[in-house]
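FAQ: What does a multi-protein file look like?

Like this. Sequence, then tokens, then the next protein.
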Amino acid sequence: MAAAREPRRDLAAMLVPLGRALTAAELPLLAEHGLSMWAYAVLLRLEAEPLRSQAALAESIGADKTRIIEVLTALESRGLISRTPDPADRRVRLLALTPEGSRVRDAAQSAIQSREDRLLAHYLPPTQRTPFLTALATLSALPPESLTDPDL
């Protein structure tokens, strides 16, 4: 006879409310840097590498490609990103982070992570913090299709 499993809540039932609460806690910090959540997502995504199109950017951050244009225009007008025509295809805009965009992104991220560090220190003992962050990083790096694999 199999041992009885200790009941626990489903991952999504735990993560979704946590994600919403963390997002709500980030909004005032982002506002201090003049950023919306979508603008911050753009700056974080462009940190890794420039992108070849607005559609590719929208897809990579899960945004609607028609609605992200307003965010990109605002970021470009503040000098945080550049959108330059691709010499190989003038219909395509190459998106890149500017030095000022990097500075604003770094400042916002520092404020957010400082708050997260205080939160983790308040609720998790030191021995649980690194394993929690490692597990979260591992799971969040999985491709979405692996999470819906019926053979798991």
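And here is the next protein:
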Amino acid sequence: MSPSIKSETNFFIAPNDAGNKEVTWRKGQKGLWKFYSVGDVLKNGASFIKQTGVGGAKPNYNQEQDFKVEIVGSVKELTSASGILRCSKSLTC
């Protein structure tokens, strides 16, 4: 189906495992895949397998669905409290 995937202003940190640094993964080679990275931060050797362009994928958003993308520098701050919920019968999540 020749998909286009656009990653915009995301923060990727690769694990220390040398064989596990690719951000994108695809099963099979059918169709023409296009990957675009715009303003992403790639740490610890993270990379896209084959970036075929910069900024070319256009989302199918209507005007009401369109949104402003936050700057990538604030991702760590915005997600600093994220993670697994620690719930139990005695604690309310």
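Q: Is there any per-entry metadata?
A: Some entries carry free-text notes. For the entry above: Residues 1-81 form one domain.
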